[in-house]
Design goal:
CATH superfamily: PPM-type phosphatase domain
Low-confidence stretches: 28-39, 46-55
Radius of gyration: 28 Å
Structural class: alpha+beta
Number of domains: 1
Number of helices: 10
Helix content: 25-40%
CATH class: Alpha Beta
Shape: globular
Mean pLDDT: 84
Oligomer: single chain
Order of helices and strands: HHHEEEHHEEEEEHHEEHHHE
Largest sheet: 6 strands, antiparallel
Number of strands: 11
Length: 312
């Protein structure tokens, strides 16, 4: 009632205008987002230069896989995890790369390879990521990387033995932190280290024909066509007490690491693998060309290639 009387006497009170919003002073060094209008005015080469800024200091990765021309299903598995932290605080470039080639038929091979790859990645990441992401100001205990990779391989073996007892798989893993490389390996999938002037097989095949070669009973050429060339004497899922090859290396600046199944290296000679990698403009192009070369050579098995190039 009082409000209505006051309104009749003095009129309805006008709403006060809101106080003007004063923007905070702009930091002259602050980054300004590139507007679509401005981006449209830039020449294509300028836009590419902006997108490539800093990419030379990052790992470059390629992956390719194909069932091949003979097999009806794919028993190969590839798995890639990468991470970077840049800004006020940084961490080294991080990558975990896995290739597994299953054995066993009736879906046992693909189940074994998938389980092994997922298990080795889970166990590795659970132990390594907390250390990588810890406060750099704190004196955090750094894990022993070779021990972790061996434990992860052992866990993958136990998982396959328990869940796919009639299956098995090769398992080749590469943990890359900066230029430090830890390779863990069982079976005959391979890892190669490639530079401008070197081509090195960094893993040793755990196969019957490799053992025969080492004993001098057959040549490398004979091993490629030997009727028992697919027989492995060591594989994930073939019992407890798995022996794992684990090595630590330093990758030179600009070097490439290639992981692949025998569906690639068994059909494409080393010199052609090297030539293909050297001629490719990037790791993805290289992997696709290598898979195409294996198919062109008959594609008698599943084909998998994972390639990572460290910064120059």
């Amino acid at each position: 009632m009082l409000n209505s009387i006051l309104e009749k006497l003095f009129g309805k009170k006008k709403a006060e205008a809101p106080a003007p919003v004063v923007p905070p002073p702009r930091d002259p060094d602050a980054t300004i987002p590139l507007s679509p209008q401005l981006a449209a005015q830039l020449p294509p080469d300028a836009i590419k230069a902006l997108s490539d800024l800093g990419s030379s200091k990052r790992m470059r990765i390629g992956i390719a896989q194909d069932v091949g021309r003979v097999r009806s299903h794919n028993e190969d598995v590839l798995l890639v995890f990468t991470g970077e932290l840049a800004g006020l605080e940084t961490m080294p470039s991080f990558g975990l790369f896995v290739v597994a080639d299953g054995m066993g038929g009736h879906s046992l091979g693909e189940r074994a390879s998938s389980l092994a790859a997922r298990t080795v990645a889970r166990v590795t990441l659970e132990q390594i990521l907390p250390s990588l992401l810890a406060d750099p100001q704190l004196e955090a205990e750094r894990p022993a990387l070779q021990e972790i990779m061996e434990q992860a391989m052992t866990a993958a073996n136990a998982a396959v033995v328990n869940s796919v007892p009639e299956g098995g798989t090769t398992l080749t893993c590469a943990l890359l932190i900066g230029e430090q490389l830890i390779l863990s390996h069982v079976g005959d999938s391979r890892a190669y280290i490639i530079t401008d002037d070197t081509f090195e097989q960094a893993t040793r095949d755990h196969s019957l024909v490799q053992r025969l070669q080492e004993l001098g009973q057959i040549t490398a050429a004979e091993a490629l066509v030997h009727p028992q060339r697919s027989v492995l004497y060591r594989a994930v899922g073939q019992g407890e007490g798995l022996e794992v090859d684990v090595v630590s290396r330093r990758l030179p600046s600009g070097a490439s690491l290639l992981l692949c199944s025998d569906g690639l290296w068994g059909l494409v000679p080393d010199d052609k693998i090297l030539r293909t990698v050297q001629q490719a403009s990037n790791p993805q192009t290289a992997c696709e060309a290598l898979v195409s070369a294996a198919n062109a050579a008959g594609g008698s098995d599943n084909i998998t290639a994972v390639m990572v190039q460290v910064p120059s």
